Amino acid sequence: MPPAAVLERPIERHASRSKSAPSALSVLDSELHELISTGGPLPADYASLNQKLRAVGDAVRASLLSKPEVLAYARDLTARHFTGTLQAQALERKYGYSGDFEIIDAIYRQTLHRDPALRRWDLFFHAQAAPVAVRNRKAWFHRLLDDHLATKEGKPLRVLDVASGPARDVREWMLDHPGEEVFFDCIDADIHAIDHARKLCAPFIDRVEFHHRNAMRFLPAKGYDLVWSAGLFDYLMDRSFVFLLKSLLAVTRIGGEVVIGNFSPFNPSRDYMELLGDWVLYHRTERQLIELAREAGAPADAIQVEWEPEGVNYFLHVRR
Ligand SMILES: C[S@@+](CC[C@H](N)C(=O)[O-])C[C@H]1O[C@@H](n2cnc3c(N)ncnc32)[C@H](O)[C@@H]1O
User: Fold this and answer.
1) pLDDT tens, position by position, 152-162
2) 37 CB less than 6 Å from ligand 1?
3) DSSP-derived 3-state class of residue 133
4) CB 3.0-4.6 Å disulfide test: which of 125, 129, 159, 178 passes with 268?
5) How would you label 229-247 residue by residue, b for 16+ Cβ within 10 Å and e otherwise?
6) Is ligand 1 within 6 A of the CB of residue 190?
7) Per-residue pLDDT tens for 68-81?
8) pLDDT tens digits, 189-202
9) At what angle do helices 129-150 and 168-176 cross, to 10 degrees?
């Protein structure tokens, strides 16, 4: 382990600016080093560690500490101690953006580092509310598919999955529903995601088609019963949100629905994501989601907002 003085350099740089900000980061830093020396956090340590992270977040919100400085600290610490962990993977942005198919798939599969000395950090990552909510949204999609399947009345079910990423959700549902007349069109802008998803869904090639396209510019226009998009709209500014939702409604058949996942402001992992992982999303309230759906032309009685058990992921349902 490098000497504490080296690790604390980013903290010392702030000492002249404020008294409270450096102390929030120092307290977090001490706790992290204590945990590093004992082999990583156990579940009994999570509350205290989350509390220290929140205190750093509060210092940033109070402008006592700047976000780039905290991120510089996180990068330094991660490079020294957390190579190959999910924390490192989030910061690395291997494909140029946060939330790529690899990290999302790792969240679904709850992968752990091979090195026992680092495994507990991955367990801490997976236990955060945001990854739990990501796993819950897969279950949400599955439940939606079940509901649509139950009401399709002998007709084939057509589903559009926008920003499909690893398509682990599609694969698992298809495995549980062999022989059903359900046809998926999956769109993703990242060819690496498409390649990975095609492999995962290879057994269902006759019913799952992949399109390597930017959803803002292209959508297959088949008249879908269900249009699903999770993990995309919370990266979009309001204008793009409305534009894309309008386009999705245009390819939904009358009687079908569009369902969009978006992180809510009740995200206890937000500081962890933003300050240690540089993973920034547009968190939206129920009211904001409803207003955006109204802007996209949906009548008030066609809109509903629901959420998964953590309350971290909202789902905007818009009926056509
Ligand atoms: C966070 S992942 C979500 C994956 C999947 N929906 C899930 O929940 O498991 C986001 C995905 O959105 C894709 N993406 C981002 N912008 C896109 C766009 N404009 N059109 C299509 N895909 C896009 C990325 O390539 C990435 O695979």
Assistant:
1) 888 999 999 99
2) no
3) helix
4) 129
5) bbbbbbbbeeeebbebbeb
6) yes
7) 999 999 999 999 99
8) 999 999 999 999 99
9) 40
Q: Does ligand 1 come within 6 angstroms of the Cβ of 262?
A: no
Q: What is the pTM of this model?
A: 0.90
Q: How many domains does the chain have?
A: 2
- Rounded-to-integer distance, Cα 134 and Cα 140, Å: 10
The dihedral region occupied by 51, where left means phi > 0, alpha psi between -120 and 50, and beta the remainder, is alpha
Place of tokens 């990583």: 40
C-alpha dihedral, 86 to 88 to 92 to 94, nearest 10°: -40
CATH at 276: 3.40.50.150
Domain boundary among 96, 127, 158: 127
Domain carrying residue 73: 4-127
Q: Buried b vs exposed e over 103-133: b needs ≥16 C-beta within 10 Å?
A: bbbbbbeebbbeeeebebbbbbbbebbbbbb
Q: Which amino acid appears at position 278 of this protein? A: D
Residue 22 is predicted with a pLDDT of 53
Q: What is the DSSP string of 243-254?
A: HHHHHHHHTEEE
- CA-to-CA separations, 268 to 20, 54, 134, 310, in angstroms, rounded: 22, 9, 14, 10
Quote the pLDDT of residue 185.
97
Q: At what angle do helices 238-250 and 286-295 cross, to 10 degrees?
A: 60
Q: Looking at 127, 162, 183, which one is the last position of a domain? A: 127
Residues 104-125, mean pLDDT to the nearest whole number: 96
According to the model, what pLDDT value does residue 222 have? Answer: 84
Q: Is 215 in the pocket of ligand 1 (CB under 6 A)?
A: yes
Would you call 63 helix, strand, or coil by DSSP?
coil
